[in-house]
Amino acid sequence: MTTISPKSPVGINGIGRIGKLMAWLMSTKEELEAIVISTGRKSGKSLDDLATYLGYDSTYGPYARFISGFGREKAIEINNDTLYLNGKKLVWLNDQEYRVPGSIPWSKHGVELVFDTTGKMTDPTKNEDNSLRGHLHNAKKVVLTAPFKIKNKGAMMPEDAVTVVGGVNFDRYDPAAHTIISNASCTTNCCAPPIKALVDHFGDKFISYALTTVHAATNSQQVLDVLPKDGEKDCRKTRSIINNIIPSTTGAANAVIEVIPEIRTLGIGSQASSLRVPTNTASIVILDISLIGEYDNDYMHSIFSKYSERNPEIMRFSDKQLVSSDIIGSTHSTIYDALFTHRRTTKRDGQLYTMVDLNFWYDNEFGYVCSLDRLYNLIIGKR
Ligand SMILES: NC(=O)c1ccc[n+]([C@@H]2O[C@H](COP(=O)([O-])OP(=O)(O)OC[C@H]3O[C@@H](n4cnc5c(N)ncnc54)[C@H](OP(=O)(O)O)[C@@H]3O)[C@@H](O)[C@H]2O)c1
């Protein structure tokens, strides 16, 4: 059994949107001794510039407000060339050689568990220094903040790797067996819980679903149009996000099946697509489902009302007329927008069929980081 001590400093590789917010959240943990971040490069002119980067956020406002409302100014401090977030020591690894996970001296700083938030290393089958598995040279476990992508189509998922989503399949995590853990994507964390509730409720009466995420911009987008790279497959990715709704892809369809294998065994059809829109965070999954039988809106509400009562941290049931900015800062993986549900029943060869349009909000940044926190608690044995 590989256990992770709740006191051991947590490692964060990459401090972009997800890594930075993860550092914010980890700084609230009383028992944690320190946070160790690795950027594999220096930033700005001095430690002060890193403090400014961590101390302010264009989406969530100042770190001090996140920690304790408007009352406190010194939530982030530099003492003896060391940065402290909320009094928690932040160790910054910035040597160029640390761009390669296998070279990062995590254990030297007491780190047992690493969150890789770079998005650059997603293949659990690779066994090189410069891969996700490279972290395991000097740490006990690594969490990927994205879905696994196995490049070699014939390769099997290694036995020590697992994808888990809170509210769906946390019971699959085996502390003795699993050292490489994917928390799937923000979109999967939003749509897998309601799909699981539907699969459990309807079984083989659930014919198919199609989901579209209307997703906020991320740093994978361009501010203005750029020339596509040599061999670029998706040239829409090179278009300006401040001027466009950009059709894109999502790995959610595959990831949902991975965490809910009954979808395959029951033969439920599925599809997923994505539209990127010019907002800084907060997204919505439009989930269209086809069912055998007749069901009204109240019937659908009762499924999600019960699910959210059983899983209060994962799903919020909303009967308010929300828009995307109302979601910013949400800690839930998914928010059911009950007022936006609509359905129609038809009859064919004497059989009734109902098509329902369901909608689920999520803060793709902070909401996702809170799902990582739930996974962290699972791994350190706090749930
Ligand atoms: N943003 C979201 O809504 C969201 C939600 C859920 C999951 N995710 C996933 O989380 C991952 C990160 O997303 P993000 O939005 O945080 O991206 P991001 O803002 O681009 O951050 C990625 C960070 O990783 C750093 N990095 C890249 N290679 C590195 C290396 N070898 N060593 C150390 N640092 C390295 C980058 O810094 P440099 O400038 O130094 O390269 C950058 O700061 C992606 O896999 C994404 O799919 C994102």
Can you give a write-up of this model?
It is built from 8 helices and 17 strands. By secondary structure, it is α/β, with parallel strands linked by helices. It folds into 2 domains: 10-158, Rossmann fold (3-Layer(aba) Sandwich); 187-364, Dihydrodipicolinate Reductase, domain 2. The strands form 2 sheets. The chain has a 9-stranded mixed β-sheet. Strands 10, 11, 12, 13, 14, 15, 16 and 17 form an 8-stranded mixed β-sheet that branches. α1 links the parallel β1 (10-13) and β2. α1 (17-26) packs across α8 and α4 (186-202) packs across α5 (252-259). It is globular, with a radius of gyration of 21 Å. The two termini are 17 Å apart.
Summarize the structure.
This protein has 383 residues and is an alpha/beta fold. The chain is built from eight helices and 17 strands.
List the defining traits of the structure above:
single chain, 383 residues, Rossmann fold, Dihydrodipicolinate Reductase, domain 2, 2 domains, 8-stranded mixed beta sheet, 17 strands, binds NADP nicotinamide-adenine-dinucleotide phosphate
Q: Which SSEs are present, and which pair or pack?
A:
Elements: E1 10-13, H1 17-26, E2 34-38, H2 47-55, H3 63-68, E3 76-79, E4 82-85, E5 88-93, E6 113-116, E7 141-144, E8 161-163, E9 180-182, H4 186-202, E10 206-216, E11 246-248, H5 252-259, H6 262-265, E12 269-277, E13 283-292, H7 297-310, E14 315-318, E15 334-337, E16 342-348, E17 351-362, H8 366-379
Parallel strand pairs: 1-2, 1-6, 2-5, 6-7, 7-9, 8-9, 10-12, 14-15
Antiparallel strand pairs: 3-4, 4-5, 10-13, 11-12, 13-17, 15-17, 16-17
Helix pairs in contact: 1-8, 4-5
The structure holds NADP nicotinamide-adenine-dinucleotide phosphate.
